[in-house]
Amino acid sequence: MAEIAVAENPAFEVSRAELDRDTGMSFTVDTVLEFQERYGNEIYFIIGMDAFSEIASWRLPEKIFNSCNFAVIGRPGWDAETTIGKIEKGLNAGENSPLFKVMEVGVAYSFVGSPYRIVFYSEKELDISSSLVRDRIMKEKPVADILPEGVAKYIKKKGLYV
């Protein structure tokens, strides 16, 4: 479905890196480091603010912050300051944890010691989720405003989420 979604836009490419990795579990840090090696240092991790707020609980979050830029997309009920506060609290949890701080730099944020930036895009919050897509499909409601046409056709053809 990801391939269908971006098929018409040459600026996007779908990666099978996590699917093809033969090490068992796949962690975001491994994917980010692989992409950095493959594409260079100017990579952007696009993520919803709700998911980004949990990054302190991921494997090696400091290494992720030190390996890529972040484009954090607004989600209803989330704001940048609260999200940054939650991340700082999570990174500094535990008595043996070193102190980590996310700094404000101009209109972006930066993880201390990292050359990469965290930019929040909150002007247009996206209230789209996999749960919303499944719910609409199960109730036979329109999905044209939340899914590319090709993806909607694929889901219907395969009888997914019914």
Structure write-up:
With 162 residues, this protein is α/β, with parallel strands linked by helices. Helix content is 38%, strand content 14%. The protein has 8 helices and 5 strands. The strands form 2 sheets. The protein has a 3-stranded parallel sheet with strand order 1-2-5. Strands 3-4 form a two-stranded antiparallel ribbon. The longest helix has 12 residues. The mean pLDDT is 88.
What's a quick, concise take on this entry?
With 162 residues, this protein is α/β, with parallel strands linked by helices.
Give short descriptive properties of this protein.
two-stranded antiparallel ribbon; 5 strands; 2 domains; 162 residues; alpha/beta; Rossmann fold; 3-stranded parallel β-sheet; 8 helices
